[in-house]
Amino acid sequence: MEQMRQITLNIPPTTKPRVVIVGAGFGGLNAAKNLPDDKFQVVLFDKHNYHTFQPLLYQVASAALQPDAIAGPLRNLFHNTKDFHFRMLRVLSVDPLTNTINTSAGSLQYDYLILSSGAKTNYFGNENMQRFALPLKTIPDALNMRSHLMQIFEWASLNANPALKEHMLNIVLVGAGPTGVEMAGAFSELRRYVLPKDYPVLDFSKMKIYLLEGMDRVLPPMHPKSSARAQRYLEKMGVIIKLNAMVQDYDGETITLKNGEQIKSFFVVWSAGVMGEVLPGIPKEWTERGRILTDPFCRAIGSSNIFAIGDIALMKLEDYPRGHPGVAQPAIQMGKYVAKNLFALHRNETVKPFKYFDKGSLATVGRGKAVADLPGDIHLGGRLAWLIWLFVHVNFLVSFRNKLLVLANWAWNLFTFDKGNRLIIRPYIRKGDEKSKTVFAENQVGS
Amino acid sequence: MEQMRQITLNIPPTTKPRVVIVGAGFGGLNAAKNLPDDKFQVVLFDKHNYHTFQPLLYQVASAALQPDAIAGPLRNLFHNTKDFHFRMLRVLSVDPLTNTINTSAGSLQYDYLILSSGAKTNYFGNENMQRFALPLKTIPDALNMRSHLMQIFEWASLNANPALKEHMLNIVLVGAGPTGVEMAGAFSELRRYVLPKDYPVLDFSKMKIYLLEGMDRVLPPMHPKSSARAQRYLEKMGVIIKLNAMVQDYDGETITLKNGEQIKSFFVVWSAGVMGEVLPGIPKEWTERGRILTDPFCRAIGSSNIFAIGDIALMKLEDYPRGHPGVAQPAIQMGKYVAKNLFALHRNETVKPFKYFDKGSLATVGRGKAVADLPGDIHLGGRLAWLIWLFVHVNFLVSFRNKLLVLANWAWNLFTFDKGNRLIIRPYIRKGDEKSKTVFAENQVGS
Known about the structure:
Two copies of one chain form a homodimer. Chain A is an alpha/beta fold. Chain A folds into two domains: 2-47 and 89-121 and 275-346, FAD/NAD(P)-binding domain (3-Layer(bba) Sandwich), CATH 3.50.50.60; 127-272 and 361-443, FAD/NAD(P)-binding domain. Helices cover 32% and strands 22% of the residues of chain A. Chain A has twelve helices and 25 strands. Chain A has helices at residues 26-34, 57-61, 74-77, 127-132, 139-157, 162-168, 178-198, 224-236, 328-346, 382-396, 400-416, 434-440; strands at residues 18-22, 41-46, 50-52, 71-73, 84-88, 91-95, 100-103, 106-109, 112-115, 119-121, 171-174, 209-212, 239-242, 247-250, 254-257, 262-264, 267-270, 274-276, 287-288, 291-293, 306-308, 313-314, 361-366, 369-374, 378-381. The longest helix of chain A is centred in the middle third of the chain and has 21 residues, at 178-198. Chain A is globular and about 70 Å long. At the A-B interface, strand 5, helix 5, helix 11 and helix 12 of A face strand 5, helix 5, helix 11 and helix 12 of B.
């Protein structure tokens, strides 16, 4: 057996410059799609075989969409390109001196390297948070969250203790960025339209949805007008918003704030921060707080052929002294920019520096309720903002197939006020969660 | 914590007769839907919160359908019934003397008990088969199978050893009943239309699909004409059929037949047998080979108020000396029958014995290729049989929502020759599979 194993990357030799891309998020995907394969050999690495449309992950988590609707099989996207090579594997390290990237399936020389590995959840060192709270960065995360939520309601149906039953229904969302706000809205709609019909034995008027934010307003990256509007929508929908609220601890059942306040909940979502994870081998001087410092050409400072785009990149400009916002648009635009300029750079031709075109920010709170900051200091709310949100998101989904599925799901949800994907098909997983094990283990079903 | 836990079934007391149904498959679901809740209190137990449309599981496994399309959330189905109570839990045992059913959430008295827990995979004591082969009874099974298949292709792309690479692509399906035949067809279409585009580095002309059957023809329960026709279709599609082939062993890499022949494969599906699993507490005299013997009224012999329907039931009639076929129709008809007759039985009124109306059998092999045995000794093939199959399956899907999703998926597949659900979103699981761990573990990604 052992001698039969000959793991290899199996990338054909080439006379063209070879571009290796690490990560198939918005940045990597757009770089890969826009690099002409007659000029370059393009190699894409990712640990999944699909691209995740992250802005809609919360809809999978809240049972409005099925996972397949927001995932694009990567190999599908490159059926018509010849010198393109996707490999599903783990990238281990890079050696900038020898232009070598090392992976779980072997090493490869590159001419150009594009790092677009994105960001991961940042718990700011809070180990209990990491153990007990639910992250939302991947499709398995979203499926786990959906299953965990539904499982809690099933368990609550089987619990006779009024106190426990009441706080079993509570939801706590930490972080009122777009993800937190959109989840708060989605769960609030579930509570209003769906859950009372599903669980007649539970009293959902007792279910509390908390949205905690460390800053002094929701949607801190957006305009204060939009923040105020979103807050009004959420409060109307019965979401309890706590601003300037810092989380101190969570033991799987009780979350404690820095001011001493305690909230009981078995369902705590952590979307309060992300961090980059720099590939081993990248010199420390090139990085700052887990992100790779780049020049205005998306090139890692100190390197001539390594690029960083999207959340992993930190391009400090006058307009963006702390880098570009960690959303899809900068990643998409950087991906396209790098692809477009690589050929010129390769021939030592002059290229223009990257310029971010801010198309604005959107966040949806619920049916017919959204907020939009548009270029020209325009700040919209209500149905109009929601229609813009709908149009933009359907339009951005990577493949036609997904658009159809999303539309079918949403049309159904709109007409019926239902969310149809309330299946518990993942095992109940909160790693190391001994406490909830003792509460629930005897009734461990549904996986 | 401990004292806070008061697990209870939480079923309201009632003056109406209480019917407890164990299992929400075709039998249990149809019984539950047809029991009037003004005459009975209906309690339904299942370990999942959804009904699985088992005849289409192979389509999830072969990436043609997403799991949500063939699963109906159970609570959804009973929004408009008042004295209906679904509980997600494990049923532990029954005490026929005291009319008590014991579950992971407590015990409950019943007036009538309907056992419809279905069948589980039968490995006939072959422990290695159980360890290494993939079953297909549940949606998690189907998702695991789909992920495992796609993961094998990703791994094969990273393997340089020609011998290993070649046999890594092989698929072995054990059992040529409808599931085996339908999977063989589905995988053969994947091999022809989809995989070569996804994996240009792999040579799919070397990929072999084996269909092994212990009897002397495929689709043994169907008419010999249909068996011959299905075999012809499959062979034309390049499926290697081995009849009278008994499996002896499988070590995770090599499957050995009783005649000594060996086939190498990392992907072996076991659909060669099912068995019932009788609930502890049911007297042994009431059972035969894991099934509950019933009288012609679906009543467990020896009991006046316990019924068994579907795969778990064994009603020996002159026409069906070994019981009814283990497919959806007998379960559905028994479920409706029991529901209809329970009120009469309760009032000691005369009821007619159960009579199975054989609507015929269908199996699809691929695009425009199916076989159908219809009442009146009619045996169809080709496009007509396939249209019947399509109509019947869409029509039987439990909820409107699912019908829409299935249609959207199938329309896409038909027009594009694509199967769009090739995502690896489940961890790679073959329990206790040490050998493939050593082959693949270094590259464990995609989960």
